[in-house]
Amino acid sequence: MIPEGSLLSAHDLRKTYGSTPALDGASFSVHPGEVVAVMGPSGSGKSTLLHCLAGIVNPDSGTITYAGRELSAMSDAERSALRRSDFGFVFQFGQLVPELTCVENVALPLRLNGVKRKAAERTALEWMERLEVDGLGGKRPGEVSGGQGQRVAVARALAGSPKVIFADEPTGALDSLNGERVMELLTEAARSSHVAVVLVTHEARVAAFSDRDVTVRDGRAHNLEYSA
Amino acid sequence: MILLDKPGTTGAPAPPRPAPPSRGAAVLRDLGLGIRFAAGGGREGWIRTLLTAVGVGLGVALLLLASSVPHLLDARSARDQARKESPASTASQSGRTDRSVLRVDAGSDFGDETISGFLMRAEGADPVLPPGIDRFPAPGTMVVSPALKELLASPGSGLLRERLAYRITGTIGDDGLRSPGELRYYAGSDTLTTARGAHRITEYGGAGETDPVPPLLVVLIVMVCVVLLVPVAIFIATAVRFGGDRRDRRLAALRLVGADIRTTRRIAAGEAMFGALLGLLLGLAFFLVGRLFVGSVELWDVSAFPADVVPDLRLGLLIVVAVPLTAVLVTLLAMRSVVIEPLGVVRRGRERGRRLWWRLLVPAAGLSVLVMKGRVGEFDPVDPVPIATGAVLVLVGLALLLPWLVEACVNRLRGGPVPWQLATRRLQLSSGAASRAVSGVTVAVAGAIALQMLFAAMSADFHRATGEDPSRAQFAAYSEDVTGDAATSAIERFRATEGVDTVIGSVEAYATKPGTYAEDDVTPTTSLTIGTCATLRELARIDRCEDGDAFVVHPPGDEEQAEWVDRTARKGKTVLIGEGMGREPFRWTLPADTPTVTARKDPMGEIHHGIMATTGALDASKLPGATIVAQIRVDDRVPDIAEYVRNTAYRIDPGMRFVELNPVARDRMYDSVRTGLQVGATVVLLLIAASMLVSQLEQLRERRRLLSVLVAFGTRRSTLGWSVLWQTAVPVALGLAVAVAGGLGLGATLAWMIHKTVVDWWLFWPMVGAGAGLIAVVTLASLPPLWRLMRPEGLRTE
Amino acid sequence: MSIGHTLLGLLESGPRHGYDLKRTFDEKFGQDRPLHYGQVYSTMSRLLKNGLVEVDGVESEGGPERKRYAITDAGITDVSQWLDQPEKPEPYLQSTLYTKVVLALLTGRSASGLLDTQRSEHLRLMRILTDRKRKGDLADQLICDHALFHLEADLRWLELTAARLDQLAKVVTP
Q1: Which residue has the higher pLDDT, A224 or C162?
Q2: Is B276 in contact with B55 (CB distance < 8 Å)?
Q3: Domain range spanning residue C101?
Q4: Is B524 in the same domain as B659?
Q5: Higher-confidence residue: B344 or C134?
Q6: Residue A123 has what pLDDT?
Q7: Residues of B in contact with A161 (CB under 8 A)
Q8: Cα C107 to Cα C5: distance, rounded to the nearest angstrom
Q9: Contact residues, chain A to chain B, C-beta under 8 Å
Q10: Which of B10, B433, B581, B682 is the most exposed place for a label (fewest CB within 10 A)?
């Protein structure tokens, strides 16, 4: 059931919002350092799949295993702790805390994890440098462009040294050039740090940055690489 | 361009462009548009309008309530006067008529409640009736106020039922009661006589003349009004701004389709006016509904009949005009600091920061008005205008100072744990909303502190130290005009009461020197106290005492008085006891070997001097008329001991005066002013808590998505909870600091003006506690919505 | 486009005459380029030779002789393999893909599976191009981008078709 060597895997997930099924028997797995694109038309349940995999939402049924631990058996607090320590997140928009400066935003996951402010901000600056936004440290998110903000968000996702980064339409609000640069920086940083990436997107050109793709249709994940 | 060529329009003339509307019409159109937005802006628009309307409504209801206070007080005192016995009727003790009534005050206490009541006996066929009852109570029955009826029916009042063991035959109507919660009864009797302390009355209705309010009290009342009404005004101004950000964005969209800045301002004004007008209606509704419940609500012993709560016409009109006007002005003022551009809203002037100097001017001006007014003589008539002006300027000045201070302090905050960082950064970005709400707290608290200091400073006037010593006796009972016989039995009955340790029971009468005196000569008189040795030892420093002894008692350190005592109390000679009581005086010879001793204070703090005799020396039951004084020490551990003793007292004589000994006596008027302040401050703080809560929730709702993202990160609930707490606590703490400093300054100034010294600088702690309570309430109340918003569903709404 | 596989697929629903095959083909796929009868004849003889079809019977009522063809088991397997095999992603692929989708619908095979396979193949190529772009110089990047944009257009078409499969099935199956 759990593919050999996988870091995070899900089997037969079901999740219903109200009366509409969002996931209907979806299975998924990702290996350490692997970039997997989750594709599918809007409303197909790909975001729900990501939320379940990340332990943000509890599926109605099915199993999610992360590094040998069963996610659905964990308490809310344990899953929160896991998200703090092992996962990173990039969303399409509205994810930076507007009143914190960029470097404080990047340092946030570290600080939530108990790292001291000085040390956290030092690490944050290193990551911002790698994502080519180190000049924005003292600025607030409202004062930087969309592409820069998204790079800050990527830096933040990476700063906590996660094992998995969940990216939900990370380039959705960007033009193709900026979007591609963000994807390039994200995947490069992830591969070099051996971080797995679960990338939800509906854009093929974004998905092309992945190692493998999974299509979600009607709440079911079609994993062609394994069936072939 | 074939594509653009619309067939059919080429030949027909274009419809004429409508002429631009005149200026007045444009204003009306824009205001109307604003009203349409406020009324028809979808669900969000309605929520915003409703929030404003509810906020304004609460403020208006409170203002209407405040404007009803004069009428309320008038109506209360009018009813109070109407049921007093007419002075004319008491003056002419003359004769019994068909209408005359004998009555005695038979008020009593039960627990903490005071029950007023009278025993009444009709002397003719058509006795006068007090207001509120239509039939004279027959002997053994009583009419009671509804509140007393309820109290008597409640399970815990068995001892009271035992005391007021009359059959209830009716209730007292509203016009015979001061307030709905008043405990009062009229009981019928067939044994009352004037000889046993009853008054004969033939008419009700006092002479309308009440004591003028003392000048110091005028100062207090003016201050109380200022302290309570300024925060309400601030609250209304805050409520008008609810949802302002969203409105600004909507106006930006209007700019995109061609509205100019003036138009957007007028639209905003229209929206604000609509909200305020709706608030006015809501406020009226709140007021009318609240009025119905005002009778059942009792705050610190204050309740009122709904019919009494009628706003003053002029004040009411002022409210109706001023509230919408304020709403529009505040909106326009608030919009001065933002520029609404077609593509969004730009806040301006944030970099410049708030300026300090003009904010300092206002409180400084207030203080100088007060100082220039100078000191007020204690009995001079007080002109409240300069005092009120000065106090208002100081308090409003504090409210103005606060935004600057919050900004200045918050901008210096750096680092700290994550919740602290989130909160302070948030405040740095926009401290205005927080300081606005908090300025209401500041005014209320500063005013309350100043007032309390003033109260404390004036307490020497209002609080007399009574000299009563509850460790020697907790209760005292007096019954006048009883025979000596009855007096001794009364003391015995107190002694026999369960839980009573000792009774210092004495029978008091007057002794005079026999002889005839010229018309303008004062008959040498001294008091005579009869009791057991134990009792007498409580009243004088007596070494040896046996039953049968008598003493001449001199007051300590008063030669003149001692000599006066000796003129009557001549050892070995006769004195007359009960002279002038309408009965034959009793003659008694003071034994020749009577020692002279010095008096000491009794538990009530009084000095008894004159002649003291043990019961063996002088049989009290032979005295023609005497007063019983029983000072009673009880075992505090016996539950309801006070009620047992009161019941005994009531059985002995319903008209017996019965007091609980207290080291401090309070003035009732002072108490009522303080009560008013407490009630008002509580309501104001709740109101401010409500407005802070609304802003907090509004802000949280705007941040729904961000909160979900933070949850995705694994942010703990407690982290965000703490940040919400800090976000409220920091401005409130600063506001309290300003309030404490300003309040102490104002209080000291006012105390100086009335020639008093500040006795207690630490009176502000309760208000600081109330402020902390406010923080807690706002934080706790915003947690459930915060938890709800922190659910991951927020990530799905895009 | 492989006419042989298409005709084979059409035969799956039952034996047909050569002329019948041409008519059906024209009706379903040949809107702008009808098939010559000679094309049908030569294709069928090739298929016959390879054992993918067989002659079911011959009619000659008052005219030229007409052969009726039927698909063999080997023929059915061949059609399946063809449908399962994704096309090499290249520009202007739609007509082949369209044919495949319709045939899959006609023969009751999984059209959405076919589309997924194709999507996956397209993405594989896009991934390779993206990788090359990342390592290459500006010229490489521009060339790759051109291809990527075309492939993306194909993918969009695939997604659109996948979303409309039910509608299409109603139209093509009588």
Answers
A1: C162
A2: no
A3: 87-174
A4: yes
A5: C134
A6: 93
A7: none
A8: 12
A9: 17, 47-48, 51, 54, 56-57, 77, 79-85, 87, 89, 91-92, 94-95, 97-101, 104, 108-109, 111-112, 117, 140, 166, 168
A10: B10
> C151 vs A213: CB contact, 8 Å cut-off?
no
Q: Check whether residue C48 and residue C74 sit in a common domain.
A: yes
**d(Cα B269, Cα B335) in Å, to the nearest integer?**
10
| Interface contact C159, partner A, CB < 8 A | yes
Is pLDDT of B666 > 60? no
Same domain, B344 and B251: yes
- Is B330 found in the same domain as B291? yes
- Where residue C17 sits, what CATH number does that domain have? 1.10.10.10
Measure the CA angle with vertex B387, ends B383 and B388; round to 5°. 105
Query: Does residue A22 lie in a domain region?
Result: yes
Across the interface, which of B425, B714, B795 has its CB nearest the CB of A100? Answer: B425
3-state secondary structure B169-214: EEECCHHHCCCCCCEEEEEECCCCCHHHCCEEECCECCCCCCCCCC
- Distance of alpha carbon B298 from alpha carbon B300, whole angstroms: 6
- Rounded Cα distance, B796 and A46, in Å: 11
> What ipTM goes with this model?
0.86
- One-letter identity of residue C31: Q
SS (H, E, C) C55-89: EEEEECCCCCCEEEEEECHHHHHHHHHHHHCCCCC
Question: Residue B560 corresponds to which amino acid?
Answer: E
Let me know whether B447 and B556 are in one domain: no
Tally of structural domains, chain C = 2
Q: Is B371 inside any structural domain? A: no
Q: A216 phi and psi, to 5 degrees?
A: -105, 125
Q: Is A116 helix (H, G, I), strand (E, B) or coil?
A: coil
**pLDDT less than 50: residues of chain C:** none
For residue B317, what are its two tokens?
């009109």
CB contact under 8 A, C120 and A205: no
Residue A217, classed as helix, strand or coil, is: strand
Bridge pairing between strands A35-39 and A196-200: parallel
Alpha-carbon distance values, A227 to A199, A214, B180 (Å): 21, 11, 83
The H-or-E segment that residue B375 falls in is: none
Residue range of the domain that includes A186? 8-227
What CATH number does residue A31 fall under? 3.40.50.300
Q: How many CB pairs under 8 A join A and B?
A: 76
B626 DSSP β-pair partners: B482
Torsion angle of alpha carbons B486, B490, B491, B492, nearest 10°? 100
B209 part of a folded domain: no
Give the residue from B640, B665, B690 where a domain finishes.
Answer: B665
Of B327, B323, B330, B332, the C-alpha closest to B266 is: B332
String of DSSP letters for B680-701: HHHHHHHHHHHHHHHHHHHHHH
In chain A, how many domains are there?
Answer: 1
Domain carrying residue B169: 91-201
C-alpha distances out from residue B722 to B294, B782, B790, Å: 38, 11, 14
- On whether the CB atoms of residues B100 and B203 are closer than 8 A, the answer is no
Q: Which positions 17-46 of C are in contact with A (Cβ < 8 Å)?
A: none
In a domain, B388, yes or no: no
Domain end marker among B284, B315, B348 = B348
On the CB side of A31, CA atoms within 13 Å amount to 9
Chain B contact set for A80 (CB, 8 A): 711, 714-716
From the CB of residue B345, how many other CB atoms can be counted at a distance below 10 Å?
Answer: 16
The answer on B549 and B520 residing in a single domain is yes
Number of structural domains, chain B?
4
Cβ B557 vs Cβ B625: under 8 Å: no
C98 and C109 share a domain?
yes
Quote the pTM value.
0.65
CA nearest to C112 within chain A: A217
